[in-house]
């Protein structure tokens, strides 16, 4: 296969930390296309995601990325995406034509058409997983698998299958519903508007609770769980919603905070810590991944290939239309990921 590699490309750069719709981003129409060195490959990117963490990076609020911690701007955003090897550097074995997801860890950079990476950070995409699903591998599906594994290991789920999630209509939440069902859990799915309720039920949600419509949330959870309370809660919201879910935990129940959607703190009653012995922890996929076996990405791809969880897409936008893409990202009641189409 021969591909003509241009000298320049389009790249979406973070030029100041702030609002992505008010000048924090700039589309560079003529960024140079780098050349791969020893052990490296040049990827032609096909899709990249807009993830909440990417938005926090643009806003300068995400300490997981070195450039944000060090207040350095002038870099390309986007933690995850999918591309194809179009050139090899010297002493490189990954063949041209291979579809891969680059694992950029403490680096961003998928919002561009070409990307040079070490071949050893390239995760091969298997047959049977399409580009749009593959582009979402690292952030959300891995987190779903990791959180469910932690619940299986640490929550009092024997004899009580009830677990709850907030932001249940998120792209991640929709996969959580699917894989949790497959693993034998019953899910309570807490959402902020009822627009998505029927669809979440179709995906396998056992219960859907519209938080704003509940006059007595605690009583509702009592009724759903037959008085047992929730064995675990995974919370991406915090504030009133996260706090109410946490208070509905069963004795010994596990709370995993993993997202910052409301920007508000979660409140914990000391009495729940003392007398119910609940456990309150965070979940960070990057930290969890470091402790997994080498085949973890193959395993997660296999779950996607078998349809045990399906990353969904709301809409895709060419890189030039990045502002429309961010507007769609901020719109309520989405049904999946916003993707940037790069080729
Ligand atoms: N800790 C980790 O390692 C890790 C890894 C991956 C993802 N995450 C987190 O997982 C969460 C979901 O990610 P995603 O990509 O699936 O997100 P997404 O598709 O962009 O969905 C975001 C969700 O947040 C909800 N939401 C936004 N603001 C809210 C508010 N103020 N109150 C209640 N709900 C609110 C939205 O509700 P509507 O549906 O009503 O609009 C939507 O369902 C994010 O918080 C992300 O940062 C964490």
Automatic annotation (TrEMBL):
GO MF annotations in UniProt: NADPH binding; oxidoreductase activity, acting on NAD(P)H
Protein name: Enoyl reductase (ER) domain-containing protein
Domain of life: Eukaryota
CDD domains: ETR_like (cd05282)
Enoyl reductase (ER) domain residues: 23-340
Parts forming coiled coils: none
Keywords associated with the record: NADP, Oxidoreductase
Organism classification: Eukaryota, Rhodophyta, Bangiophyceae, Cyanidiales, Cyanidiaceae
Pfam families for this protein: ADH_N, ADH_zinc_N
InterPro entries in the record: ADH-like_C, ADH-like_N, ER, GroES-like_sf, NAD(P)-bd_dom_sf
């Amino acid at each position: 296969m021969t591909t003509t590699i241009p000298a320049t490309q389009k790249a979406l750069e973070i030029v100041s930390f702030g609002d992505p719709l008010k000048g924090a981003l700039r589309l560079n129409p003529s960024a140079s296309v780098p050349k791969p060195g020893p052990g490296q490959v040049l990827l032609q990117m096909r899709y990249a995601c807009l993830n909440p963490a990417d938005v926090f990076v643009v806003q300068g609020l995400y300490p997981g990325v070195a450039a944000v911690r060090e207040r350095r701007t002038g870099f390309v955003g986007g933690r995850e995406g999918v591309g194809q090897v179009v050139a090899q550097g010297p002493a490189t074995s990954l063949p041209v034509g291979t579809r891969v997801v680059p694992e950029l860890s403490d680096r961003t950079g998928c919002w561009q058409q070409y990307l040079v990476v070490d071949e050893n950070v390239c995760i091969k995409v298997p047959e049977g997983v399409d580009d749009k699903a593959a582009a979402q591998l690292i952030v959300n599906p891995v987190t779903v698998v990791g959180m469910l594994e932690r619940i299986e290991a640490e929550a009092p789920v024997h004899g009580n299958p009830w677990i709850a999630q907030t932001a249940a209509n998120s792209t991640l939440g929709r996969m959580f519903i699917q894989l949790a069902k497959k693993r034998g859990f019953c899910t309570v799915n807490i959402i902020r508007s009822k627009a998505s309720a029927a669809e979440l039920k179709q995906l396998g949600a056992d219960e859907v609770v519209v938080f704003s419509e509940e006059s007595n949330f605690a009583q509702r959870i009592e009724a759903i769980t037959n008085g047992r309370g929730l064995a675990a809660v995974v919370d991406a919201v915090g504030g009133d919603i996260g706090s109410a879910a946490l208070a509905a935990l069963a004795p010994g129940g596990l709370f995993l905070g993993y997202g910052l959607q409301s920007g508000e703190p979660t409140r914990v009653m000391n009495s729940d810590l003392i007398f119910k012995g609940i456990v309150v922890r965070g979940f960070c996929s990057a930290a969890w991944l470091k402790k997994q076996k080498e085949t973890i990405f193959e395993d997660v791809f296999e779950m996607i290939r078998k349809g045990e969880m399906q990353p969904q897409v709301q809409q895709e936008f060419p890189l030039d239309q990045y502002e429309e893409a961010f507007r769609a990202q901020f719109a309520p009641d989405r049904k999946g990921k916003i993707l940037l189409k790069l080729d």
